[in-house]
Amino acid sequence: NRRLVLAERPKGEPTASTLRLETAEIPAPKKGQMLLRTEFLSLDPYMRGRMSDAPSYAAPVEIGGVMVGGTVAQVVQSERDGFAKGDWVVSFNGWQDYALSDGTGVMPLGRNPQNPSWALGVLGMPGFTAWAGLTKIGQPKAGETLVVAAATGPVGATVGQIGKILGCHVVGVAGGPEKCAYAVETLGFDACIDHKADDFAQQLVAATPKGIDVYFENVGGKVFDAVIGQLNPGARVPVCGLISQYNATSLPAGPDRMNWLMGQLLRKRITMRGFIIFDDFAHLYPDFAKDMQGWIAAGKMHYREEIIEGLEQAPEAFIGLLRGENFGKRVIYVGPL
Ligand code: NDP
């Protein structure tokens, strides 16, 4: 059983010495448990938070502990009612080949799922995050302008496509011309701005002539800086993620714009609301699954994956995800072993 454990807490960007590959015995399931073999491991930005012991909504991974992570797995041996050898499931095996489970939080995928890895993306946690954050907090109306960054990732791409289905004018923000072209040509966004361009802020203003009604916040930093002044009275800002800050070790240098921001919120009666997907919206999962399955069946949802083979590639692939090197949902293909 190969597994990646947290060797040290990173300062700034994770490095090659943050995680350590170990080998251990394959555990045997006791009564009420099952042994799961990891097929696909999801790489997600939140994992950077689990490497840190700064206060957060979830406990950090212990030093020496197996790195946590969502997985698609197959049941190898079952001593638990309701699960049989060969069943596919969504589980939380973490960054390892095998894991024991008592079934808590495990979601069955049947015997022969069509695209099992999609359960880690558009049909799973990131898709659900997009759906809930946008429709429940963003509450977009037809004709309104919606802006979303990390626009080609699993959350952003889904946010923008749902926005189009709901009749919004959708402007994406992404890193580089290739990702921007994909957002417009394949995902159907009305425009997409490259945040690496020197005149990014001016381009964003030009692309949102009627202001911004919903800003789905995935990145923070200079993208949010450029958005604030464009927000319309009554705008809604679901605060989903701040990936530009996840490796930061200190606050950025001034000027201190906090009071200017507070003035904008007050005068324009803007609603900003943070959310943690399963803590806030778990009860709505069936509604999401129904909508998303319908959109996929109707050909209304494009989904791009980047599958990287080999558990040992996961640390490098994760460091790259935080740098924006991924183009689509990054998944590690771990099995079959
Ligand atoms: P993505 O696959 O979109 O990955 C990250 C992307 O962020 C990169 O590809 C890059 O895209 C962009 N990015 C990285 N650094 C910067 C930067 N400095 N400035 C601007 N963009 C940057 O990730 P997900 O779709 O999985 O997640 C998107 C966000 O949603 C994350 O912030 C994540 O933490 C959050 N999230 C929150 C949840 C919640 O419950 N609140 C649940 C799930 C996700 P590009 O090259 O286009 O800039």
TrEMBL record:
CDD domains: PGDH. SMART domains: PKS_ER. It comes from Iodidimonas nitroreducens. Residues 15-332 form the Enoyl reductase (ER) domain. InterPro entries: ADH-like_C, ADH_N_2, ER, GroES-like_sf, MDR_fam, NAD(P)-bd_dom_sf. GO terms for molecular function: oxidoreductase activity, acting on the CH-CH group of donors, NAD or NADP as acceptor. SUPFAM superfamilies: GroES-like, NAD(P)-binding Rossmann-fold domains. Keywords: Oxidoreductase. This is NADP-dependent oxidoreductase. It holds the Pfam family ADH_zinc_N.
